[in-house]
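About this split. The held-out portion is used to measure sequence recovery: a designer receives only the structure tokens and must propose an amino acid at every position. Recovery is the fraction of positions where the proposal matches the reference. Here is one held-out target exactly as it appears in the evaluation file.
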């Protein structure tokens, strides 16, 4: 995340409405929203504006404590990174659920890190939510901001409290050189798209795992090479339509194809040792239909067994 910008992160348990609020504030449907916990995994960020004040908003995955598997621990690491790099945090809770132990753990963690946060109680569009929102004062916060991310109720009041923290004038040296190209990285699941972007940016910006389907959102990542800046877009793996079974996977594929439409250059990442598959060719057709320049990258070259296999 560019540190020249005032940055606000959305943090909370899974399925409290962070992505819905993110889309509401930014005015774009960039984060996938679906009625299932744990949809968001990687950090998704976009510029936002309120009352003439500009800032960067970051959507994070649902925070879970304890050891719950590789992906969950990596999501938790991403959330902690977002908190560390943020100037302020919107701590989002579900008003209908009341105060849960994990809410208490998160607020303790924010205080330990001495991070300025604003507690927003979401889903107050129901009577139950309105009545329960006041319970969050037991977390020793001065103000609870009742909001409905879905309908927009109370969001302006929340932002009114945050924007006074934003400096009136940007730093003299913003470091915001113009992005020279937008590059989408596309391919089948588990061919190494996220690992490639992590290698280019120089740290684990994206969650990479051997589990197919780890990436769900299309995530923009700024890469500096020499004195030029490139906007890389990591995307979810695109499987054949007949193999795309869940609604969530269909949403992810839609986001991948949207990322293709907003790029200048597409990188078609394929599994080198497996060779060019039918689905690789289909993704190439998608790229050519959008009339985008394309670079074909054959990954996992270290697994090729010989020169003859490499040429094939």
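Reference sequence for scoring:
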């Amino acid at each position: 995340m560019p540190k020249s910008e005032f940055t606000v992160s959305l943090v909370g348990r899974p399925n409290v409405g962070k992505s819905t609020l993110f889309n509401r504030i930014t005015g774009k449907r960039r984060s996938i929203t679906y009625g299932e916990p744990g949809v968001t995994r990687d950090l998704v960020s976009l510029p936002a504006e309120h009352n003439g004040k500009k800032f960067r908003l970051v959507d994070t995955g649902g925070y879970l404590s304890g050891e719950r598997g590789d992906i969950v621990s990596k999501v938790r690491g991403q959330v902690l990174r977002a908190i560390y790099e943020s100037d302020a945090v919107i701590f989002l809770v579900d008003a209908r659920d009341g105060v849960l132990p994990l809410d208490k753990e998160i607020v303790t963690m924010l205080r330990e890190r001495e991070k300025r946060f604003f507690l927003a109680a979401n889903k107050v569009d129901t009577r139950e939510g309105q009545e329960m929102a006041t319970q969050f004062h037991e977390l020793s916060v001065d103000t609870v901001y009742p909001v409905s991310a879905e309908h927009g109720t109370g969001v302006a009041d929340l932002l009114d409290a945050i924007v006074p923290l934003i400096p009136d004038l940007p730093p003299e040296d913003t470091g915001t050189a113009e992005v020279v190209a937008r590059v989408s990285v596309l391919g089948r699941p588990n061919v190494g798209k996220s690992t490639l972007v992590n290698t280019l940016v120089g740290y684990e910006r994206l969650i990479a795992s051997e589990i197919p389907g780890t990436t769900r959102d299309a995530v923009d990542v700024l890469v500096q090479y020499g004195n030029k800046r490139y906007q890389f877009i990591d995307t979810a793996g695109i499987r054949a339509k007949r193999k795309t079974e869940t609604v969530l996977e269909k949403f992810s594929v839609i986001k991948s194809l949207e990322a293709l439409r907003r790029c200048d250059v597409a990188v078609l990442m394929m599994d080198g040792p497996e060779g060019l598959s039918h689905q690789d060719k289909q993704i190439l057709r998608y790229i050519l239909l959008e009339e985008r320049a394309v670079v074909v990258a054959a990954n996992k070259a270290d697994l090729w067994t010989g020169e003859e296999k490499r040429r094939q």
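Annotator remark: Residues 7-165 form a domain with the Rossmann fold fold (CATH 3.40.50.300).
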